[in-house]
Write a structure and sequence with these properties.
The complex is a heterodimer. By secondary structure, chain A is of the alpha+beta class. Chain A has 7 helices and 24 strands. Helices cover 23% and strands 47% of the residues of chain A. Classes of the chains: A alpha+beta, B alpha+beta.
């Protein structure tokens, strides 16, 4: 069944039917009082008209003073909508919050456009920006662009100029990259193989250069083992005389010189130490993740020492992750607590340090032997380890040819 | 051959110069704008009568409504069927008869 609806009134107007007086007089009064009446039409029950909501009071006053009876027939769409909305405070509050958020987001950094294709420069710029307190979610009016630009110019390697421009809520970072200088190639320089340890040579494999020592001999750190200066003497006889012609060739020494050497290290572990221990306090901080920006959804960031773990939850459509979601950062608070170790515990910890050292720094050598001795005083334990190592003892050292 | 000319007296010329004459603008049959109007005498759904300086403007039509009556002008909107000008001076009315 079709509903017989009244035609809608224009947006900001209120409809009235006026009776109880001369129409001509009413028109005159409206004009004198500058009431912008519209849709005026005399009907059987009175004069029907609409007045804008800002003229509503004056219109009612005119009617009251001059004996007209004004009966309201309806509100304009907007007036009606506003009245309806005002009855729902939650809706009004949410609208106000939305407006406030929009106003706030207008001045929040959402993304960075860095005008370079060099990934290293890009990551350096992002690091410097972070150090200067500029990251996604920063309040743009608080950013001192001149200071940040100066920091970029000073601290980012590979650029000679940087400029920051704001475009909406993105920051565009223009950079002028350094023109790379022609790199000199050292591969054609003559070089020696020099001992990097005090060692006894056990095995020699020389591909180029002149060996200056023999297998079984001892060398000191810094000694030239394979020289890049190859000298040859050409001996000729002329008229019963010996002529020695000295020939010098410069080359890049190549080879592997293996030998045995000793290295002594001391690992210490104090009885009284401080270690990181979790306090048991766990905090969660949430961010609104929009593209590359993380907008904090809290007012005050936690201060202290924390282990952090973050998790991004965003919806996906047909396997395609949407570029927005909620990032939850879980912060586990820790503080440094004093710990006292017994002598055995200190020895065990020193042994662990020793194992770590071997794993990280001695993996290229063969450990032939290790002599371990422990000494303890009132402060802690010292573990002295003397390694007998076997491996490459040489390193390349380039030199210039004197003219 | 009869030639009808509009003769303006001194007062008429002065009124013209001072732009005191009323101007009636008709837009299709949808609206009539009357400038320099003195008073709206009547407005109903089929008939509107507006008083200007020397004439009454009578408009006949359907769904007529008046809007914008704050200045010295008025707009009559609706479906306009006819517009008639009635002189206010007795002499002109008598001559017409």
């Amino acid at each position: 069944m079709k509903k017989n609806r009244k035609p809608a009134l224009p947006f900001f107007r209120i409809g009235y039917t006026v009776s109880g007086g001369s129409a001509v007089r009413l028109y005159r009064l409206l004009r004198e009082n500058r009431v912008s009446a519209a849709d005026v039409c005399e009907k059987q029950d009175g004069i029907s008209l609409t007045v804008p909501f800002y003229n509503n009071r004056s219109f009612q006053r005119i009617c009251r003073k001059n004996g007209f009876e004004a009966a309201k027939t309806g509100d304009g769409d907007v007036v009606r909508a506003v009245k309806r909305i005002l009855k729902r405070p939650a809706l009004v509050i949410s609208l106000l919050i939305v407006f406030a958020v929009l106003l706030y987001l207008k001045d929040i950094v959402m993304r960075f456009d860095i005008m370079t294709e060099d990934e290293k420069i890009r990551s350096d710029i992002m690091n410097v920006l972070k150090e200067e307190g500029v990251s996604a979610g920063s309040y743009i009016p608080d950013i001192k662009f001149v200071v940040v630009e100066r920091a970029l110019k000073q601290r980012v390697e590979g650029i000679s100029w940087a400029g920051i421009t704001r475009k909406g809520n993105s920051l565009i970072i223009d950079v002028v990259e350094n023109i790379p200088a022609q790199k000199g190639s050292f591969s054609r320089f003559p070089s020696n193989l020099v001992a990097k340890e005090n060692a006894v040579i056990e095995k020699v494999r020389v591909q180029d250069g002149q060996l200056k020592t023999v297998v079984g001999s001892g060398v000191s750190k810094g000694d030239i083992i394979v020289s890049g200066i190859v000298e040859n003497n050409k001996v000729t006889w002329k008229d019963g005389k010996q002529n020695v012609e000295k020939r010098v060739r410069y080359t890049r020494s190549m080879g592997i010189i293996e030998g045995t050497f000793e290295r002594t290290l001391v690992f210490e572990q104090a009885f009284d130490d401080a270690v990181k221990k979790e306090t048991g306090n766990v905090y969660k901080q949430r961010y609104l993740h929009l593209y590359s920006a993380d907008i904090p959804l809290f007012f005050k960031a936690k201060t202290g020492s924390f282990y952090s773990d973050d998790e991004l939850s965003s919806a996906s459509i047909a396997g395609f992750m949407l570029p927005f979601g909620i990032r939850t950062v879980t912060l586990k608070e820790y503080d440094r607590k004093p710990v006292h170790y017994s002598q055995q515990e200190a020895i065990d910890l020193a042994k662990k340090k020793c194992e770590k050292y071997e794993k990280n720094f001695l993996s290229e050598y063969e450990i032939k032997d290790r002599k371990i001795s422990f000494t303890a005083d009132d402060k802690g334990v010292k573990m002295q380890v003397t390694y007998k190592l076997y491996g490459n003892i040489c390193e390349e050292a380039a030199f210039f040819i004197e003219k | 051959m009869n030639k009808t000319t509009t003769r303006l007296g001194f007062a008429g010329k002065l009124k013209d110069l001072a732009s005191l004459g009323s101007i009636v603008t008709v837009s299709d049959n949808r609206s009539v704008l009357i400038e320099n109007c003195r008073q709206v005498c009547e407005i109903s759904e089929i008939y509107a009568k507006v008083s200007t300086g020397d004439y009454y403007v009578e408009i006949w039509g359907k769904d007529l409504k008046m809007s914008d009556y704050t200045q010295d002008s008025v707009i009559i909107k609706g479906t306009v069927e006819s517009i008639k000008l009635i002189s206010k001076t007795f002499r002109e009315r008598r001559e017409k008869k």
